[in-house]
Design goal:
Rossmann fold, binds S-adenosylmethionine, 14 strands, 2 domains, alpha/beta, seven-stranded mixed β-sheet, VC0802-like, 11 helices
Length: 428
């Protein structure tokens, strides 16, 4: 039996998600049905057996959720949507014993109130279950057993049953977060966009809680992103424990092998904040990634961490000058530090180093000490290339939540680093 799935992801990552899903199907499904579908803004469709949905939950690093399509029909009113939801055989999937949450998202819908539409979908599902079983499920908006999503365009309504539960970027081991951590699935998608592959040196000089590094290390060690967490489908009648146990056992075997591995991953991180590095280390320990190398360094004084050139990736602080900090332009700090010293340097740095000066020195470091590397910088500041005095090779639009960003690529090729003057036209 085959199902239609829709996999939402951060906007800008649709193509890399589609490539990842095809790879998951070929590596983990042993020929079970999987057919790639359309890429649309914010997600990818595919058709496949139940095992394909489970494998996408367990192995996709880029997906936000895995949604199972239940119904699709044109609508004109809330009553049409109520009727569509009432007709569906929800009792096949869950009982009135499970708690429920309904979410509605809409693009250009003519309906006046999404809140009212949400209530109508919820009423229809509860009425349906009461009609067939005599009981209505309870609503729980914070930790529901079952989630239903309705997606409205100007003309059509699609109902989805969620198979993920908590969004998939929650890997289950990251407890210590910095002030502005990247979502894991955005970091994983960016890594794919950089073309990085395991074995190539990877360096994040402003690593914060270490999201890029952890995602890369899991790729290098072949650790499934969902090996440590529970999923929504575990609460559904169509759980198929046997298929799931087989998929999960293979993932846990790979994870145990990874823990035993002494491989030099060539994955390096640094940050000016000792506090952030303590958090990153705690996360890596929990995730079994202790082999990632971390140092406390001011990015303005950074040096290439490996003799071979590789990929540098970072999302620097932006807009909040408060976060661009450092003691002095070449101030390499000690390996682990006490935060009181950091705080001092941070207040001093606000006077010493406005953002533009910080980025000019960062650009100098890239030009002088990263020959042969490819640097990828995610920022919402379109003026970044000018500030770095570097000309980008590409810029890819991406969304960090609602914030529109660019992933700038700089090829630091010997003798031909493409420079740009500070007052060059800002990138579009
Ligand atoms: C937007 S956060 C990066 C978040 C990170 N990608 C994560 O997922 O946790 C920016 C980081 O830059 C660091 N930072 C600020 N100024 C720095 C400097 N001069 N040198 C190195 N790191 C710096 C901050 O401590 C912070 O951790």
């Amino acid at each position: 039996m085959s199902f239609d799935f829709f996999i939402p992801c951060p906007r800008g990552l649709e193509a890399v998600l589609a490539a990842e899903l095809a790879e998951i199907a070929s590596r983990h499904l042993n020929g079970a049905p999987f057919t790639a579908g359309a890429q649309v803004p914010g997600g990818v469709h595919f058709r496949g057996g139940w095992a394909a949905g489970l494998a996408a939950n367990l192995h996709s690093r880029i997906a936000s959720r895995v949604l199972l399509k239940i119904a699709h029909r044109p609508y004109r009113s809330e009553q049409d949507i109520y009727d569509l939801a009432l007709e569906q055989r929800w009792e096949q999937w869950f009982s009135a014993q499970e708690t429920l949450r309904v979410d509605v998202t809409a693009i250009k819908s003519p309906l006046r109130s999404l809140e009212f539409t949400t209530l109508r979908v919820k009423d229809a599902i509860c009425d349906r279950l009461r009609d067939v079983s005599g009981e209505r499920p309870n609503i729980d908006t914070s930790a529901p057993d079952v989630r239903v999503f309705a997606f409205l365009t100007a003309t059509d309504c699609t109902l989805y049953l969620d198979t993920s539960g908590e969004p998939l970027f929650k890997r289950g081991w990251r407890l210590d977060k910095g002030a502005a951590p990247l979502r894991e699935n955005l970091a994983a998608g960016i890594l794919r966009l950089t073309g990085w592959t395991a074995g190539t040196p990877l360096y994040d000089p402003m690593c914060g809680s270490g999201t890029f590094l952890a995602e890369a290390a899991q790729v290098a060690l072949n650790i499934a992103p969902g090996a440590e967490r529970r999923f929504g489908f575990e609460n559904l009648k169509q759980y198929d424990a046997k298929t799931w146990q087989a998929l999960k056992a293979a993932a846990l075997d790979a994870k145990h092998a990874a823990r035993a591995s002494r491989a030099d991953l060539q994955i390096f991180g640094s940050d000016i904040s000792g506090d952030m590095l303590v958090k990153a280390r705690a996360n890596f320990e929990r995730a079994g990634l202790a082999s990632v190398s971390l140092k406390q360094v001011d990015a303005r004084g950074m040096t290439a961490p490996s003799s071979e050139p590789g990929i540098l990736v970072a999302n620097p602080p932006y807009g909040e000058r408060i976060e661009v900090r450092g003691r002095n332009a070449r101030g390499e700090l000690r390996e682990t530090g006490r935060e009181s010293r950091d705080e001092d340097s941070f207040h001093r740095a606000q006077e010493e180093a406005p953002d533009s000066e910080f980025f000019k020195l960062l650009g100098d470091a890239l030009k002088q000490r990263f020959t042969g590397w490819h640097a990828f910088i995610l920022t919402s500041d379109r003026k970044l290339p000018g500030q770095l005095r570097l000309r980008e090779s590409t810029k890819t639009p991406l969304f960090n939540g609602a914030l529109e960003c660019r992933l700038f690529r700089f090829d630091l090729i010997a003798g031909s680093v493409r420079q740009r003057p500070a007052n060059d036209t800002p990138a579009a």
